[in-house]
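Q: My labmate handed me this sequence with no annotations at all. I'd like to see what the chain might look like in three dimensions before we decide whether it's worth expressing. Could you predict it?
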Amino acid sequence: MLKALTADQVRQFDEDGCLTRLRILPADEAIALRRKLEDFERAHPEHVGKLDFKANLLLGWIDEVSRRPVLLDIMEDLLGPDLLHWNTTFRDKPPDGRAFADWHQDTQYIKLKPMLIICWLALSDSTIASGCLKAVPGSHKWPLLKHAEGGDDASILSRQQYITDDFDQTTARDLELEPGEAALINHAIVHASGANTTDDRRLGMLLDFLPTSAVKEGPRDTAMLVRGTDTFDHFDLEEQPDPGFTEANMERQRQALEAITQTMYEDSSYTPKGL
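A: Here is what I predict for the chain of 275 residues:
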């Protein structure tokens, strides 16, 4: 029985590989989370890089967002009742008219099957002018396209990756969001985002979910069980972070980052910013 999505929305996600304008948080709560993040940035500027991957292991309030019932109900409708939260990261785009994300598929580097769903939760207005997420509907069913990395320091992506194959961009859809709204994408979809030409930062919290049955290529990885049970043991299960910003949280995050480096950054000159 569906809990949060309609049958038509489930079919649309299967067909398009994306859904948008899903209300996860009230707008004022999303803005309050932005302020909390900015408080951390001001208090710990030397640790801002640690927010780039596995931020949910660093701060308890980030972990709490990943456990919101409305969010888990949506994921259960798409992935089933037994859910792992693999990662939370932030995508910050300053109002400099330069920073962007080139076209890419996350399956090039996130080698998980059958599917990982990325929830792109807006903590600020995410519009065409501010460089919102855009995706090519249906491209999650394409073969994996060829990618290269590096070469443009304005890229906000972890490996500055980009697609080198030709493909049809004419059907790309802009996924505009207000604070507290989310877009969901299948991690195989071709997606990108343009430059921010407004006078405010464009800030999104990205939360990644997968079923406990999911299989990862290569060495074992870690994930957080957030609903149901895990009878597969494909991942080492993570502990919830302590309240506050602690040495124990940083150590657990470091161990998790070292695990993902073996696959996500294989044969790369890049490493997680948190390391």
